[in-house]
Amino acid sequence: MKAAPMFLTQETDAKVHELGQTEILVGIPSFNNVDTIGHVVRAVSAGLAKYFPNRRAVLVNSDGGSTDGTPEVVSKAVVDFGAMLVSDQQSPLQKIITPYHGIPGKGSAFRTIFEIARRLNAKACAVVDSDVRSMTPEWIELLLRPILDEGYEYVSPYYLRHKYDGTITNSLVYPLTRAMYGQRIRQPIGGDFGLSGRLAEHYLDKHVWESDVARFGIDIWMTTEAIASGARVCQSFLGAKIHNPKDPTADLAVMLVEVMGAVFALMEEHQGVWLSLTGSNPVKVFGFQYEVGVEPVHVNVEPMVSSFRQGLADLEPIWRQMLTPESMAGLLPLKDCPLQEFSIPDELWAQLVYDAAVACHRRVMPREHLLKALTPLYLGRTASFVLETQGLTSAEAEGRIESLCLAFETCKPYLAKCWTAPSV
Predict the structure, then answer these.
(1) Of all helices (H) and strands (E), which one includes residue 29?
(2) Which has the minimum average pLDDT: 87-96, 204-213, 245-254, 355-364?
């Protein structure tokens, strides 16, 4: 028997060997999610029984050392199929509950899930977050059916969210990823996705698993790597994603550094792909789209504007290293304008983000310092967006995000010119 990779335990390796193979694998990474993971496991079980009753399926819980009883809940979670109006599953769901090893973080959990998928020769995989309260059995069909029946290799989630939920995605990751790689994947760091067994193998063979990208930016890495490798990508409409939305002013500085660090590193790796691309293309969305009541996200604009202005006072020398004189000139009038007139226009924001990417590319300062210096700029742009969209519905605010994406696409030649210009 082939020796188990060092990040699989002997017990897990023996269980994988016993199972032999499977058609479907669903992975759930976890760490102290005892309050929510039982619901997720039951939704997965019901979805597999309802939509894929004749296919061999394995559920893998890859746990980061939970101390609250999370693995025990996974083990005991069952579904009353009669109450679900589902016939008994003809192929019983097998469970593998295993700790993951390697550097702490979601990436190591995914690595374990993908290695088990490879060993079991799974045709299709889905990975779902362990803290999603709004997950339904239909998610399983929507994440797996495009892989099994339609020939797609990567399924990205398409959620409806409150206009102020996911501001890092809306103001940075979506417009930047769309402009770079030409695919309109609305939630590139969604967390719940489907992929082919072939793509899982491709991911495993990349030298990323001991890096900061694997530690902090695995979701955006997977989406970007799928597109850049030429995989067929699509989206599935999952309705609302309800977990614990955060105020954009609360504890997001660390997340911003982590995610944008991964985004900028991927720009370095894939510059041969994105430098010559222009415009973007729609990406097919599977599923019946409907209006969803989303949980409100309350935002206090004043502290965000204060943080931006404090950054302008304290970080101006650093910002002048990161940004062009033209970009800095666009920011200076915001130092003392009335709150209701505070605005960072789309074109200026796109240019600021591209300036930061180029500064990172040229290593004008330590990467961590540059990424931390982005935080007040991000908070200023978020405040600007909130002030602009206060009277709009989430659907209307989506139109403003579309305009921002077009600004990033229009400004991309500026990025390409700066990126390839000789260093002074």
Answers:
(1) strand 24-30
(2) 245-254
How confident is the prediction for the chain on average, in pLDDT?
92
- Domain 10-286, what architecture? Alpha-Beta Complex (3.90)
List the end-to-end C-alpha distance of the chain, in Å, as a whole number: 57
- Point out which residues pair with 29 in neighbouring strands: 62
What's the rounded Cα separation, in Å, for the pair 88 and 328? 64
As given in the structure block, the two tokens for residue 148 are 């099994």
Q: What pTM was estimated for this model as a whole?
A: 0.93
User: Are the beta carbons of 397 and 170 closer than 8 angstroms?
Assistant: no
- CATH 3.90.550.10, the chain: domain bounds: 10-286
Q: What is the mean pLDDT of residues 138-152?
A: 98
Closest CA to 191 of 148, 276, 127, 239: 127
Beta bridge partner(s), residue 26: 59, 126
The one-letter code for the residue type at 293 is: G
Mean pLDDT within 346-362: 98
Of 324, 320, 307, 319, nearest to 381 by C-alpha is 307
**Which residue type is seen at 365?**
M
pLDDT at residue 405 is higher than 60: yes
List the Cα angle 415/310/418 in 5-degree steps: 10
Burial of 274 (0-12, 13-18, 19+ CB in 10 A): buried
Beta strands in 267-417 (DSSP E): 285-286
